[in-house]
Fold:
Amino acid sequence: MNDKRGIWTLDGLTGYFIAVGLLLSILAFLTAAAIKTQSATATQSYEIKDPFGIKMIGPDLENEKHVIIHGKPVGGDTLHKWQFVEK
Structure:
């Protein structure tokens, strides 16, 4: 017979409900973040500066300095060399 019963055990329905609640909260957070990012990038427009200066073969990320994005940057991307211009 199992006489070891603890108040903090997560067996049965209690553990199931905690796991489902945790997964649903992660899903809600990721969905909200995706909607926020998508709505922020949907309002941005871009233009190409000096299209004849773009090289077909060159260093990585070199051609990104020709792209001008109108709007605010979304997320914490610091790798790319895009130029952001406020509308």
In short: The beta strands are 45-48, 67-70, 83-85. The radius of gyration is 24 Å. The first strand starts at residue 45 and ends at 48.
